[in-house]
Every structure is written in C-alpha cells, then in structure tokens.
Amino acid sequence: MTDLNSIAESLNEALGDKIAGVAMARGELTVELNAANVLDAISWLHGPGDFKILVDLCGTDWPQREKRFDVVYHLLSLTKNARIRVKVQVGEGETIASITPVYPAAGWFEREAFDMYGIAFDNHPDLRRILTDYGFSGFPLRKDFPLTGYVELRYDDELKRVVYQPVQLVQEFRDFDFMSPWEGAPHILPGDEKAVMAPGAASGEPGKKP
To answer: Which architecture does CATH list for 4-194?
Structure first.
C-alpha cells in the first residue's frame, strides 16, 4: 500500500498551483482543487497519478459560504491500493468542467449533482435531471429546500391520470416551534393534557385528581 503522504507530495510537485490545499485527517487524504483547473488535475490523477477508478461524485451544500457548493470526487488506485478525496468549491450560478472525457462513469453522477443541487457541468454530453420528474421545481438536497417540497401529485378521477398540484398542509402542521424535543415545547401537546397533574395532587389532598 502506497503511503498517502508520499502521494500528497507527488500531487504537490505535479500540480503545483492547481491545488488549493491538501489535508490529512483520520487517515484520509483530501485534495482541494481550483475550479478552473479541475479537468487538468483530474486528468493527471487518472493518468500519471494512476487513480483509474472514479468511485463516487457528489455535491454538498454550504448556504452560508460565499462559494456555496462542494463537488466531491472519490478516486481509487488499485496499483497503489489507495483512495483519495478531491474537493472543488463552486458558487451558485457558476459552472464546473465535466470530467466525463476522463471518467465516462461520471456522466450519471454529474446528472445527479445537477438534479439534486443545481450544479451545472460544462460540456456534459447529456445534462438533464435523472431522479426527479420532468418539470420538477427546485433542487431537493439544497438545505433551503422545504421538506414537503413545492408540489404533490395525486390521481384525478375525472382526468384519469396523475396530476400535480401545490402542496396543501392542514393547519396543525403549519405551526412549527423548532424546539429541541429534549427541552420540551412551551405548550401542552395534544393528548398530553391527561398527564398534567393539578397542584397538590401528589400530596393526596382531597378533591385533587391523582
């Protein structure tokens, strides 16, 4: 098994300023790339770097950050018996180069990142949604996407087909307190009123409900 520190040194020598940072944590090597150089760097990792297998490609969302998204690549080298993680920051509305010319398997992974986060990949051969339906609004894995979504579907007996309509919530589900369940809500929840003891009930005073 090739030492990850030696791999990190080789990456620094070969890629230089194409690398934004290298970190070793919990026995794993993470390489951060500049978005403008991602295709060149990934090509080197696949070729001379000998990381021939793309295990996974995904997105992560950091809404409070200036460049909101990370595109994360997990690469495997069988000859080195080693794995590395590659991360690239991408701002909302920005694009990043598709790595399908290097790893054809990235095609579906990049479509998923586009579908779930709205991250666009330049020169992708078929960039369209892959998990959600045609005409779907929004990006479900963004942290500001509502848990209920924006639309719901049902079968219409008159039209004899499935139709979309805005999500309709009953009123009791619209009032959220966002409090920790360990701290408890400031009000009595429905059904809990029977567990509330009247003052003096524990002392056995007459007329008090136990």
So the answer is: 2-Layer Sandwich (3.30)
